[in-house]
Amino acid sequence: QVLSLPIVVIVHGNQDNNAKATVLWDNAFSEIDRVPFVVAERVPWEKMCDTLNLKFMAEVQTTKGLLKEHYFFLAQKIFNDHSTSFEDFQNRSVSWAQFNKEILPGRGFTFWQWFDGVLDLTKRCLKSYWSDRLIIGFISKQYVCKLLSTEPDGTFLLRFSDSEIGGVTIAHVIRGKDGSSQVENIQPFSAKDLSIRSLGDRIRDLGQLRNLYPNIPKDQAFGSHYNSEWLGGG
């Protein structure tokens, strides 16, 4: 006899997300000499970071992994704790329930359902943008406002939607004549939206977008991602 890799049997496609979570947790955190099917209920947050990073890079097939600031955002999200220091999370442990059982506050989905949606979207539509580091992605709406509020009119960045599974949104600053600033978030784009018109072409279409944060002209940042056919010229 031999122990196999973890297998989950499902009877309907809507169980696929939970099955992937179970396999991932088992693969990452089970001990070699364990009693069959016994897996830790809680794991160190640092181990979870490593697991999410490996999963992201493998699924998206990119060499550009998650950064320290991405882990900070993910920690705030999974623990529902907006601590101001990355170190606040260093010695914490995360439970299976926090990972894929408890619904995120104010949402209709779990942390894993949200993260898996980001994986799928990035793999299908955003791989080249992510690999070129054009997408910050894992950043809160509140922190985006802090970053952009002092920037010139038309400065923008890309973040994964908090409110929708598998969405990417563009946040940009609008500065009034009196110098006041307002940060707006464009309705998130789904994989279906981006299969109709790519992210690069959508960014080119939006005249209010000028510079990718912190200060890269959008044509310089995204020019290689524009469709060579000028669809907006007719």
TrEMBL record:
One GO molecular-function entry: DNA binding
Residue ranges constituting the SH2 domain according to the UniProt record: 114-213
Cellular compartments per GO CC: cytoplasm; nucleus
Keywords: Activator, Cytoplasm, DNA-binding, Nucleus, Phosphoprotein, SH2 domain, Transcription, Transcription regulation
SUPFAM superfamilies in alphabetical order: p53-like transcription factors (SSF49417), SH2 domain (SSF55550)
Gene Ontology terms: biological process: cell surface receptor signaling pathway
Gene3D superfamilies: EF-hand (1.10.238.10), SH2 domain (3.30.505.10)
Family under the similarity heading: Belongs to the transcription factor STAT family.
The name this protein goes by in its record: STAT6 protein
Lineage: Eukaryota, Metazoa, Chordata, Craniata, Vertebrata
The encoding gene: Stat6_1
